[in-house]
Amino acid sequence: MSTFVGIGVSEKKDPFLAASEAAKLALYQLHHREITFGVLFSTAHFADKRLLEGITYSVGNIKLLGCSGASLISSYGVSKYGVGVMLINSDKIRFGLAASSPINTKGPRAAGEEFAHEALKNLGTTQRDLALILSDGLVENGSDLLRGIKDVVGSSFPIFGGSSADNLRFFKTYQYFNNELLTNSLIGAIFSGENLFGMGVRHGWKPLGKPHAITEVKGNVIKKIEGKPAVSIYEEYFGKTREEIKNTLIRVSIYYPLGLYVPGESEYLLRNALRIDEDGGLVCQGDASEGSDVRLMMGTKDWALEAATQAAQEAKDALHDRAIKGAIIFESISRHKLLGRLTEKELSRIKEVLGDVPILGICTYGEQAPLKSLEHYGQTYFHNETVAILTIGESHAANKLV
Amino acid sequence: MPLTSSFREPTILENIINFAGMLGLIAVIVLVIILVFKMEKIKELQAQLAKLKRAFDELDGQAKLIVQTDLELHRAQEELDKKVAGLVTLQKLTRLISTTLDEEEIFKKLEEKHITELGFDRAIAFSKDDTNVFRVRISIGYTMEEAYNILKELLNHPLILDKVLDKNKVFSSIDTDKAGKEIPDLIKLLDISSFVCAPMMKKDGAIGALILGCESPYTHLTEGDKDLVYILATQIGQALENAKLFEETWRSHQELEAKIQQRTKELSAALEEIKIISKRKSDFISAVSHELRTPLTSIKGYASILALGKLGELPPEAKERVEKINKHSDNLSQLINNLLDISRIESGRVELKLESLNLKTLTDGLTDMLAPAMKEKSIEFLVDLPPGSPLVKGDKTQIERVFINLVGNAIKFVPTSGRITIKAKTLDPETIQVSVSDNGIGIPEKDLAKLGEEFFRIDNDVNAKVKGTGLGLSLVKSIIAAHKGKLTISSLPGKGSTFSFTLPKA
Questions:
Q1: Between residues 105 and 124 of chain B, which touch chain A (CB distance below 8 Å)?
Q2: Does the ipTM exceed 0.85?
Q3: What is the pLDDT of residues B222-281, one digit of tens each?
Q4: A167 to B216: CB separation less than 8 angstroms, yes or no
Q5: How far is the C-alpha of B408 from the C-alpha of A290, rounded, in Å?
């Protein structure tokens, strides 16, 4: 038996019609095989209950995960407006789906734990290989969500995911779980059986200026750097007042995130600052540790494109000798800001490595993927500004038949 | 006590101590020297460290400079990217809009995806309808009800009324010259973070406005965005103007078309009526002629019997009268036959026996037949046919009648010693034109058109003296028409006339 992947994309105005068209096209590519699992991504315009009704209308009630994003990525291109569906058929995949909400009342860590417990319960087996998660991109401490999951499945368990986004309004993001439209949620699946997935994550940003020591941290808030309020790093580098930085922080932090040095890794772990707290601390989406060095990071289009090639190569190599049947991409919105009109070029770089396979992806507010080096024992971290690629491989049984 | 006794040889221990003291002194001196050297080294290292620190700080300072320049570059690049993407979308939209000539359709072309591609999230557009009332035309990101509520407020807003609809200017939330609360009011009303509002212009001024807005507080509008929206609104206005012109043209075209159709219908009805009347006339003539011919034959028969004296010799006066009866009966009979022929030919009841006819043979026969009459008036008769005796396709009897009538007429109207010419020429590979010309009195221009009408006779001296039915030329016309030919007459009064007709080539 084998793994089959089909995708469909639509720009029809009505969410129901768009979802229904995209699902039909995906089913056509799947040659009308039985649907094991479905992925639904859309730009924020389409986040409506009718979107999910459109899926049910075309392909019935299927196991489905998805979320809203700032742009839609597919084999056909990158679009700021559209709906994309990926349908997978495989008799080798076993999985347990779960959703946990609302994150803000339960707390990210508790939500993570609840999700993991539920997913394992639904999986119904002790063998587990990968967790695929989609979370609300407005959750301030994304690392805590991961911590909650790791508390249950173990700290070295590979987790791959993206944080859903809206149109840079940072107002509301949506998660699609089976036929439910959710917000403020963590959804996902834990997969088991023959491991069909490969992962690659890169950003391409490089450090600039001297290292600065983090002297005080509170969860996801970097309170002080070298004894001074953390925001001073931006004040000093940009020569602007706190008030000026406050108005442009998200934009500035997209181009110049903070980089945390990670021993053994070739790249720094990036952190976008969301806002400045009352003491001048920088509220980030992921956490940082006291005593570690932080650098101001800078990206260029060339480095970002090169990083995409490397991430794709990593995800391809991780499948070893298995053929790639499809890929899911979580791409940071920051990269789109940096690349501008070159976003299509980044997609071509990925396609050059992966080949002509069905690809579906979404622009996110954060990405989750494991670090490869031995020092981290394959632990998953919260990332910003990366392109995270999950390749879906052919099953071994099929390869043997060939 | 001997002095020497006071000097004691130092013991070995003392010697060792002395030596160690010496060594210690030397060591201290050496250490002091080393310390002095080390101090120098430390000083040097400290100086180097300070230098490195300074270089490091300087590099950090340069990094700050790079970052600040880079930020500016990003801003410029972002603006450029946005402009290029906006222009591409604008070009696409312009093409879509300009190929639409329906007002409603023009607005429908502006979809949510285009608004997103232009870098905005919401749109609202309003313009006047035919009754001069403002209507919402585009509503993206708002329900229709919301849009109408917004419209109500907008039409009372000084910036919309004065700047856009009156002065036809574009404005946006980045305009700082308006320090008042008018722009914040609009931001609140439209529930967005930033916007651009531009007039939609027709030839005679603004007919409405287009507003595009951004939801994200992190989207920064620029002067470029204002230009983009202004161009788009102008394009919509122009497309609306074109649609209006097209509709007007189309409407007048439709009216014209309807008029033509009405006239055609009327003409067709009139033609049908004429055909019916003409048929009735032919039927009437045919019926009457048949009815007349029977008694006429009897009259003629009896008159002949009387004239020949079969019933006894008549007195000369009576004989003269009877011969007149006989002669007039012949004329009447001829008249009736012609009428019958015309009506038969016109109604298609005569079947033409088409065959190849040699024009030379026809004209030779004609010469024999009409020679006495021509001789009587010393008429010069010329036949000018192209070499090789052209062949025409026609009914021999009917074509002979054409010649007899035309040449007979000519004989009637040429003066003594006049001239009659028959000519033939090839008009095209399928048609031959034959003409009969004379140098007679000619036909006045006013009568040319009536010539060929039944019973029409030109009012002139010759006709006053020579009797005729006025059916000869009418018969010729009918015969030629039955051969799919055409009879044309040209004449100059006092100079002569030419009767030309066409026949198909054999």
A1: 111-113, 116-117, 121
A2: no
A3: 888 999 999 999 989 888 888 888 888 888 999 999 999 999 999 999 999 998 887 787
A4: yes
A5: 133
